[in-house]
């Protein structure tokens, strides 16, 4: 049934130990924080990820520098609070952290637009249970492939992906901003996903 | 396993966090049922993470770090009140909106086969509602003035285009006409997101058209 993983069954992945544990530094930091409330590990994680979070907060958005700093604090606090739920066998540290940053930014946008809602982005992103379940499907090899192929995308496709993912703009907002038809935005996204060899069928 | 899925554009916007709140709720409920879409969403989240890691870092000073370190011992607030009722059969998102189960909702009857309960999701552009139609019941033929997203929570229904079951995700667009009929075997419950009101074609129901307004609360 899980052909996505079946395809890789006969290949070994040097980054994953036989137990399935990931060995990268950020997974270790998260695990130390989750298990021992390790402040030194948290500080290492902060120094690496907080500047990325700030860049993410400021990406093409209308957030002020103050809002961006608040967002960085909020996300890093959540990382500390949720680290106990991080499972290095199932999730990549960077994806886990990015997901928290993305959801917090979406919530901040909604708060600034004075949305009055009982739902948070966490509620509707499936980030707790199901995301862990699907991360186990495709392991680190898929991430390495995506990371390697991103640099080979033509500029127009890379630009659209940056607007969609880093700036958090809908396809129609991107179309309006770049003054191109919505269909062109959609087809550039699809072409980019094809080049990144993202698999659509199981 | 479901047969009808959100398209790639929707899953992309969903994983990028740019989909409106109510539509995200609908897509996430489908994804929680569907391994295929979990696989796609997982890869797209990895894509987002890869782009995130490649950002040009923006300087963050030690003052920020110290401010966060000083707050690490804060109590984590419980983000919402839990209901005392056992609602384990109801998806978590809906529990947030319903504070109970389907029987606690207030329903508005539309004809003899359909009742609708509007949920207060706080999305100003979209109406989020639960539709309950009786087994074998038919919804009068109608068209759409905007887009309609439907996720089947229980039972199933059919229309001229096909037959749909629990977990299936459907989008009808402006101008699409259909007259869904619930399966004979059981009542059908759906989550529906609208960005514009329906318009009945069936002459017996046309009088309602001027009164159909989006309830976005």
Structural overview:
The complex is a heterodimer of chains A (202) and B (217). With 202 residues, chain A is mostly helical. Chain A folds into two domains: 16-137, RNA polymerase sigma factor, region 2, helix turn helix motif (Rna Polymerase Sigma Factor, Chain: A, Orthogonal Bundle), CATH 1.10.1740; 151-202, Winged helix-like DNA-binding domain superfamily/Winged helix DNA-binding domain (Arc Repressor Mutant, subunit A), CATH 1.10.10. Helices cover 66% and strands 0% of the residues of chain A. Chain A has ten helices and no strands. With 217 residues, chain B is of the alpha+beta class. Chain B has helices at 8-16, 21-33, 35-53, 62-71, 92-98; strands spanning 108-110, 114-119, 127-133, 142-144, 148-154, 156-159, 162-165, 169-172, 177-178, 181-182, 188-194, 198-200. In chain B, a hairpin with a 2-residue loop joins strand 6 (156-159) and strand 7. In chain B, the strands form three sheets. A six-stranded antiparallel sheet of chain B has the order 1-2-3-11-5-8, with helices on one face. In chain B, strands 9-4-12 form a three-stranded antiparallel sheet, with no helix packed on it. A three-stranded antiparallel sheet of chain B has the order 7-6-10, with no helix packed on it. Chain B has one domain (1-217): Jelly Rolls. In chain B, helix 1 (8-16) packs across helix 3 and helix 2 packs across helix 3 (35-53). Helix content of chain B is 27%, strand content 24%. Chain B contains five helices and twelve strands. The chains are: A mainly alpha (202), B alpha+beta (217). The interface between A and B is large, with 81 and 61 residues.
């Amino acid at each position: 049934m899980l052909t996505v993983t079946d395809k890789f069954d006969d290949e070994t992945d040097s980054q994953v130990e036989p137990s399935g544990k990931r060995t990268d530094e950020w997974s270790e930091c998260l695990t130390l924080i989750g298990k021992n409330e390790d402040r030194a590990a948290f500080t290492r994680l902060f120094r690496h990820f907080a500047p990325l979070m700030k860049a993410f907060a400021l990406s093409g958005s209308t957030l002020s520098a103050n809002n961006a700093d608040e967002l960085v604090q909020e996300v890093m606090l959540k990382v500390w609070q949720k680290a106990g739920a991080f499972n290095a066998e199932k999730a990549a540290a960077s994806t886990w952290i990015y997901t928290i940053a993305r959801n917090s930014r979406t919530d901040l946008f909604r708060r600034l637009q004075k949305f009055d809602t009982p739902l948070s982005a966490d509620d509707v992103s499936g980030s707790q249970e199901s995301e862990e379940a699907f991360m186990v499907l495709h392991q680190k090899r898929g991430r390495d492939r995506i990371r390697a192929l991103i640099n080979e995308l033509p500029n127009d496709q890379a630009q659209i992906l940056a607007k969609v993912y880093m700036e958090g703009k809908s396809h129609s907002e991107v179309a309006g901003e770049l003054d191109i038809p919505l269909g062109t935005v959609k087809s550039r996204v699809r072409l980019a996903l094809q080049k990144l060899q993202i698999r659509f069928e199981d | 396993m479901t047969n009808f899925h959100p398209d790639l554009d929707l899953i992309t916007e969903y994983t990028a966090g740019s989909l409106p709140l109510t539509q995200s709720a609908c897509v996430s409920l489908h994804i929680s049922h569907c391994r295929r879409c979990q696989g796609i969403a997982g890869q797209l989240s990895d894509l987002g993470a890869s782009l995130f890691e490649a950002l040009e870092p923006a300087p963050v000073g030690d003052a920020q770090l110290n401010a966060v370190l000083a707050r690490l011992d804060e109590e984590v607030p419980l983000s919402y009140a839990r209901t005392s009722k056992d609602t384990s059969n109801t998806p978590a998102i809906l529990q947030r909106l319903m504070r109970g189960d389907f029987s606690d909702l207030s329903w508005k009857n539309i004809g003899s086969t359909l009742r609708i309960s509007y949920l207060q999701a706080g999305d100003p552009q979209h109406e989020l509602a639960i539709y309950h139609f009786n087994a074998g019941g038919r919804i009068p033929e109608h068209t759409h003035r905007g887009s309609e997203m439907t996720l089947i929570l229980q039972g199933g229904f059919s229309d001229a285009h096909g037959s749909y079951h629990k977990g299936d995700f459907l989008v009808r667009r402006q101008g699409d006409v259909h007259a869904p009929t619930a399966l004979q075997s059981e009542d059908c419950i759906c989550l529906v997101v609208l960005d514009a009101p329906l318009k009945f074609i069936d002459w017996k129901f046309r009088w309602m058209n001027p009164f159909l307004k989006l309830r976005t609360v």
